[in-house]
Structure formats: C-alpha cells, structure tokens
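Dear colleagues,

As part of the handover before I leave the project, I'm documenting each prediction I ran so the next person doesn't have to rerun anything. This entry is a single chain, and its sequence is reproduced below.
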Amino acid sequence: MRGRDFADLRAFMAIVEHGSFARAAAHLRVSPSALSQTMRGLEERLGVRLLNRTTRSVATSEAGARLLERLAPAMSELDGALGEVTRSRGRVAGTLRLNVPRLAIGLLGPLLGRFHDAHPDVVVDVTIEDALSDIVKGRYDAGVRIGERLEKDMVAVKLGRDFEMMAVGAPAYFARHGVPKTPRDLHRHRCINIRMPTDGNLYRWEFERNKKPFEIAVDGPLIATDVELAILAALGGLGVAYVFEPRIEELIREGRLVRVLQPWSPAFPGLYLYYPSRTQVPPTLRAFVDFLRSEGVARGARTRSSRRGR
C-alpha cells in the first residue's frame, strides 16, 4: 500500500465514522474542500464510487460498504500495532473513542483533566448517546452502560457503585396532591414518562417488595426521551419522576426534590466500562482503564453475559 493510499483510506473511514465531510475534516484537521478532493481522487483511482453524497447526508455505496467491512479490522490491527510501538517508547498516543450515556457524564467528566495530565498525547473522542449502540460496528474502543444492559461476551470493568431508582417530586407538588404510600398510588398521580431509546416503548416503573420485583405502567402529562427534561419538569411541579439517583442526589439534599416510595425502590447494577474481548487491547484504552483504577473509580475486569435490556 502506498502512503497516499493509506492516508486516503483513513480519510474515507473518517467520513463514514463522523457522517459528514465537515466533521471528518475537522477531526483530520484539513479543510472540507481538501477532504472532498481526496475522496474524488481515491474513487477515480479505484474506479468505483465509495460514498453517496447529498446536501444533507453521506452514506457508503455498496462498494464502499464492502471496502469498509474489510478495511475496519485491518486498520484496527494496525492501530494496535502502532500503539504497541509508541508504548514501548514509554508513552501512549492516539485517539480513544468512547460511547457513553448521559448518566456517566458526572462520573467521567471531572476525571478527564487528570487523565490528560497523565497522557497528554491521547485525544479522548466521546460520543454521548443513551441508545444501545453496537460499539464494534461503530468502531468505538469502549463503551459505558449500566450493568444489566451490557452486550454479551464483553470485558466489563465496574465503575463506582450500584444505583437506586428514586421516585421524586417537588415539595409543592406533594403538598397539593399528597404523598404516594405504595406504587399503586401512582395511578392517582401525574407521572412523568420516559420513552426508552432502545425500543421506543415507555419505561415501566420497576419496584420491589420482599425481594419480589414488579412493574407499573404510569400515566401523566409528559413523555420525554431525555431524563434531564423529566428532572426539570419534576422540579417545576409537573409531577412525579422516576430516575437514577446520581442525577438527583444534590437536588434532594437541597430540598428541591422530595423522595417517595423509598422502601419499594430496587438497586440496579451501576456503570461499567466495557470493550470487546480480544488479545490486543489498544494502548490508549489500557491506559484509560489503568488510570480509572488508580483513581479508585474502576475495579475488576471480567467477561460478562448480558441480562435483559430495559
């Protein structure tokens, strides 16, 4: 492979990963016009169209999809080999691509400055997404999910502690409408529903009593796909929300939200960093996992099978 071909294929993969010429150009630190010219040159040399372009989107052609399928594993192995070389020289360099839910921002965000201080040659490329993306297909080095949503046959590293779901509302709301004593009482309350990003269904509120789990479908004036909107609506007195505790612990301490139905609320596996089981872990990912362990955030690493997804 000539050096020019290698660079052009890198450019092709960047366009597919980022879904646009503009974002790929910014990632590669070239102009969109220069990137477009690179792709035209590559397609002319190969004699096939690799990308179908419109004014709004970019997608692989049939030939481009076949090329990407063969190219992605080869590039991954090459990145790993180059990473091993740089690590042998005493430093870690490159890009670490992570797929992370909003729930993990508060945990990981404050650590990124110290990680950069420890590894200044690593660029952390984070996609914030609550849907259950395929990190292998998306060419991410690792992802973060709560434990029961893990994919099969992934190496999983526990981050922090387990979570509790909390039913909360504003003090003014409960003053007007009363406090639910059991989950069944929620049928007489205004509840804030969450539409799941995985399948589009409404989340059925999960409770537990005497180690027996059960679910309740609730009704109310708001359906949201974003938990932050649900929390803001609860703060505004719209109704009762049911969310993971890391989102709202401070709001409860401040008295802006009141927790109800605590004896009925189950604990769930906390967050896990996960990545495909393979012999050659990218040096950037290995450095990140080691860093999380040194910070006391991560512990353990074992291959897990998925439980049911919510």
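The first helix runs from residue 3 to 18. The first strand starts at residue 51 and ends at 53.

All the best with the project,
I.
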